[in-house]
Amino acid sequence: MPIWRRWRAQFLAWRNALFASTRFQDAASRFALTQGLARRHANRLFDLGAGFVYAQIYVACVELKLFQLLAGRPPQSALALASALGLSPVAAQRLLRAAAPLGLVEEIGADQYMLGPLGAAFLGAPGVEEIVLHHRALYADLADPVGLLRADRAAPTALSDYWRYDPSGAAPEAATYSALMAASQAQVAAQAISSLPWRRVRRLMDVGGGAGAFIAAIAARYPHLAFDLVDLPGPLAAARGFLAQAGIAPRVRLHEADMLSADLPRGADAASLVRVLHDHDDGPALDLLRRIRAALPPGGRLFVIEPMRQARGAPRFGDCYFGFYLWAMGRGEPRSPRQLTDMLRAAGFAAVKRVATPLPLAADILIARL
């Protein structure tokens, strides 16, 4: 171990012993120069315990469409909102009071509420509503986090049930998760549009592209592009209608194939994996990268677009949110840019470049070139 790491470990051990001391905590809370630190630590510990409650307040606001009710309207009282929310005035007031400290609504006077900054941001973020509502399955699995960690990952969970895939697309769940994936692609596509060299691409192969929402967003900005969309029959059945409605069906070739086992179509000079790799364990993910490498011509590029560990400005999102989300789903893991770079090189890609995106929380991007 390098000497600087030993020194850091020794310092952290000293710090932890200090913070764990009841006497130090009591003294720190009374001393003017350390009061702020003591309060911040106390508040953060409380927030960790109360986080699930905060999340449920958010879910209640979303389910009741509170933000839409407040949008563009003057201050409203709990009594005025109660009927539209389907709540008693007392329950409506309890929800509004709870949503205000979270920034979801703004309390501007005695029992007078307007849309808050986070409520307004929610309204301006396509797909967030669908993401929030599908979290019911995740919350059910996290009700017993230790049991979840100790269970066989192959054991069924509410989340694995939600994402249970029917290749034909006939299962009731197929339409639900296809709609969720399409709705949540807007922010991801926005990062890709602003960050990647699309004018240098002639034909893009989107692997595991579902109903084609990502392709449609790119196609709207770059009319010169043609596409190959690769997925199983269920998503492609939805893609036919979606792409026709978007007016880009003539520019897209559909390929029914299991990306984890079938050879991929040739002819594209670039490929994209949009939130695909983190859904799969290392073995299948590496095999998929090798299949893409085999399908691309010399000089071809692969765009890996997904949330990653150690994202700039959003360090909790990868390991905390996606770490447990994918554990509950029963497969996959969040990976850092370094882990993905090593995997891409192992698959035969020679050069890998990380591209900065405006919103890493939605997606980080790697460009791998043959």
How would you describe this structure to a colleague?
- The longest helix has 32 residues.
- This protein folds into two domains: 93 residues, Arc Repressor Mutant, subunit A, CATH 1.10.10; 212 residues, Rossmann fold (3-Layer(aba) Sandwich), CATH 3.40.50.150.
- 54% of the residues lie in helices and 13% in strands.
- The chain is of the alpha/beta class.
- About 2% of the residues have low confidence.
- The protein is built from 17 helices and nine strands.
Short characterization:
The protein has 370 residues and is an alpha/beta fold. It is built from 17 helices and nine strands.
In terms of per-residue confidence, which ranges show pLDDT below 50 for 5 or more consecutive residues? 167-172
For the residues shown, what is the average pLDDT?
88
Overall tally of structural domains: 2
The name of the CATH topology of the largest domain is: Rossmann fold
Q: How many E strands?
A: 9
CATH architecture of the largest domain: 3-Layer(aba) Sandwich
Derived structural class: alpha/beta
The fraction of residues assigned to DSSP E strands is 5-15%
- Morphology call: globular
Biggest sheet statistics: 7 strands, mixed
CATH first level of the largest domain: which class?
Answer: Alpha Beta
- State Rg: 24 Å
> How many helical stretches?
17
Q: What spatial order of strands do you see in the largest sheet?
A: 5-4-3-6-7-9-8
